[in-house]
Amino acid sequence: MSKKFTPSDIVILASAVVLFVASFLTWIDFGSPRLPIPQQALQQLGIDIPRGTENAWDHFPGFVYPLIAGIIAGVQVVLEKVRPNMPDHVGGFSWTQIDVLLGIWALLSVIAVAFEDFGYGDKGIGLWLTLIASAGLLVGALMRSREPARATAEP
After folding, report:
1. pLDDT by residue (tens digit) across 75-134?
2. Peptide bond before 50: cis, by omega within 30 degrees of 0?
3. What are the boundaries of each domain within the chain?
4. Nearest to 110 by CA among 22, 11, 8
5. CATH 1.20.120 matches 7-153
6. Which of 24, 96, 111, 137 could form a disulfide linkage to 103, CB 3.0–4.6 angstroms apart?
7. For the chain, how far is it from start to end, CA to CA, in angstroms?
8. Residues facing residue 94 across a β-bridge
9. CA of residue 115 relative to chain centroid, distance
């Protein structure tokens, strides 16, 4: 393996960084509810309506799965450059296959959240950036599978 970062490595690393940053941004924005019933009346009935914003860490571990996949893929790319004698396969899978599986896992995890109904809460920028970065993670992994040096290293 070369110590140079390939375009696919850069896509995976950039996606991992965006996934990390997006996990701290707003995923759900409840804002102020516009209900025909006064807030005081709801509180007297014991109904608590959430307000404010929530990020991925407020729903640990469910919303953090894309970040976990991104961190694993990003660390693997960096370790591959730092330690060129890393094993080519883990548990019968090549690193490229693992990266593709991580990308699929991240993308499906965030799609499931994106289509979830949060009542009157709006989806925030963190969720949409995570969706884009998860797709980037998968695209980077697919780009890796097309690289000539990796195609010959596959079993």
Report:
1. 999 998 888 788 888 889 998 999 999 999 999 999 988 888 766 678 889 999 999 999
2. no
3. 7-153
4. 22
5. yes
6. 137
7. 16
8. 89
9. 15
Task: Give the three-class secondary structure for 15.
Answer: helix
Backbone angles phi and psi of 31, in degrees to 5: 55, -150
Token pair, residue 100, equals: 């593709």
Residues near 17 by beta carbon (within 8 Å), at least 6 away in sequence: 74
Q: Which of 64, 69, 62, 65 is nearest to 137 (CA)?
A: 69
Output DSSP code: residue 35.
Answer: -
C-alpha distances out from residue 131 to 29, 48, 58, 100, 123, Å = 17, 30, 18, 16, 12
- Name the phi and psi angles at 26, rounded to 5: -70, 125
- 47-56, pLDDT tens digit by residue? 766 667 788 8
